[in-house]
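input
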Amino acid sequence: MSRLRSRWVRWLAVWIAVLVAAAVLIALQAIVSLYDAQQRCFFNYPAVPCPPGDDPRVAQLTFAFFGVPVIWLVGVCLVGLGWAVRRRGGGRAR
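output
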């Protein structure tokens, strides 16, 4: 039983680490890109337009803050469901 738990915990830890890393990388890339665009707009205003509110980088940042946690939650629920089904199924077979 402890071996089964450790496997589920290991998969859950990997899932969390991968999605935290993905969210941080997506957010950092979007923030740096938006900051660069704002700086270019500020220093060269007439020649370089400012990024609008519907810029794809804003959507990317929104996905990093809201979409990735939703994907994480779905993964955690699936791991919990798989663990519960496996536990219940293992109990009946004995």
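quick obs: DSSP finds two helices and no strands in the chain.
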